């Protein structure tokens, strides 16, 4: 028996072909509640995959820390760049 085709709206992003991307994005919920629920689902998936495991390691926390450091560097890049070209004499 063949599997029934899955509607584009119900597919995950990694399963969507490039030609179907527009209709997939059109089916997303961009209301404030939809965005909050998407962020909550992403947080729950991250927490269950990397933090809430039986034999946990430093990987999930290290990934979070590296992301924080990279984001902080991007936020302060203009200030760092300005200081780099400043003459002190």
UniProtKB/TrEMBL annotation:
The keyword Lipoprotein does not apply. The keyword Nucleus does not apply. It is found in: Mitochondrion membrane. One of its GO terms (molecular function) is proton-transporting ATP synthase activity, rotational mechanism. The chain crosses the membrane at residues 56-75. One of its GO terms (biological process) is proton motive force-driven mitochondrial ATP synthesis. GO terms for cellular component: mitochondrial membrane; proton-transporting ATP synthase complex. It comes from the Eukaryota. Pfam families: WRW. Its main location: mitochondrion. Keywords: ATP synthesis, CF(0), Hydrogen ion transport, Ion transport, Membrane, Mitochondrion, Transmembrane, Transmembrane helix, Transport. Belongs to the ATPase F chain family. This is ATP synthase membrane subunit f. It comes from Sander lucioperca. The gene is atp5mf.
């Amino acid at each position: 028996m063949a599997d029934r085709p899955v509607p584009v709206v119900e597919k995950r992003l990694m399963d969507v072909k490039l030609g179907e991307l527009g209709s997939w994005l059109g089916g997303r919920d961009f209301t404030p509640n939809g965005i909050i629920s998407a962020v909550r689902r992403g947080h729950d998936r991250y927490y269950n995959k990397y933090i809430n495991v039986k034999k946990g390691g430093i990987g999930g926390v290290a990934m979070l820390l590296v992301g924080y450091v990279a984001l902080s560097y991007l936020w302060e890049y203009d200030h760092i760049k300005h200081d780099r070209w400043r003459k002190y004499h």
